[in-house]
Each structure stands twice: as structure tokens, then as C-alpha cells.
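Not sure how to ask, but would you mind making up any protein sequence you like and the C-alpha cells describing how it folds?
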Amino acid sequence: MLAEDSVLLREGLIGLLGRSGNEVVAAVADAESLVAAVEEHAPDIVVTDVRMPPGFQDEGLHAAVRLREKRPALPVLVLSQYVQRTYAAELLDSGDGSGVGYLLKDRVGQVEEFVDALHEVADGGTVVDPEVVRRLLRRRRDPLERLTPREREVLALIAEGRSNSAIAKELVVSEAAIGKHINGILTKLDLPPADGTHRRVLAVLAYLRA
């Protein structure tokens, strides 16, 4: 069972899985269709994107978790464009933690590794992308360790509620320079653009936790 909103990637995965000896019983483009198709086809494994219509946030992941609440033994392999700690944790906590996988989409290009991961998850194993593991471990130590001293200074001023112009005045630099620092902070804290997400607030929360 395949759920992926990108037509090109969906069709590519169907072809890849077919050539590797797997049958795609259904392929859908949104989370609600995924839930309905699983009920209809009872697949051996679900492969789903994290971000899907209508909100393009975490609909695919939530659908996978809901499915595993009903069917704890249902193997699920999630594909994600970004490393998101909460996404990985929520998936790995579903069911009894077996038969789950979290891979970055870049891994699909490494066909043998991807197919091996698919089979391992289908057999009840747990697979987590090495890049995900690396970033999770690094973030557990200190989510701010990747920031430069200047970026930490800017983030501290954001946490005080300062605007970009106020920060620029405080640090005697241009607002454009502050904007670049903030973009660097958000990137290093793994906070990609997303509708409905206040990344500046999430960055402050990361600062306060640290």
C-alpha cells in the first residue's frame, strides 16, 4: 500500500517496487484515502509520505499512527523529506515499536538499501535512517550546539521578544544581516518552512529547553 502525493515519485515507487518483486495493491495521494485503502486491501506493509494533503504537514504520519492503533501488527515505512524528531518518535512509539521504519526520501535512490529496509520492516523489524539517528543523537546533546556565537546571541534576543529591527539596533548591524542569522538558526534547528507553524516560537522553545 503506497501513499504519496507527488505523482512522479508515486509512479516511480510503483515501478521500483514492482521490479523488486513486490505488488502495490493500491496507491493514493492523501491520508484519508490511505486509511480507506488499508481497510479495503489489508496490505502486508504501508509505505507513506509524512506530509500529505490537505495541510501538507504531518497527515501521512498521523494516518499511519492511527492505522497502527487499530492494527498494531501493521508494518509501516514512513518516508520524509526532512529529519523531524517528533515525527520519528511518534512513529517508533506506535504499536509495540516493531514493524516500523523512518527513512529520508533521498534513501529511495539507493534502491537496494530501500528494498532491504522495506522487507525488514515487513518482517517485523525496525529501520531508522542513519541520518535520522545521527541528528537525533546530536539534538539530544544540545539542540543549540550547531549555532554560532552570533546566532545564539540573536536567538537570545528573539527569546526576549525583540523584533528584527530592535535586534539589529542592539547588535549594530543591518536588518538584512539579522534576517540571514535567523534563517541560519531555523535551518540548524531543523525547522523547515511549514504552513501554520510559527518557527520563531519553536526556535525560542528550543532555546529555553537548552
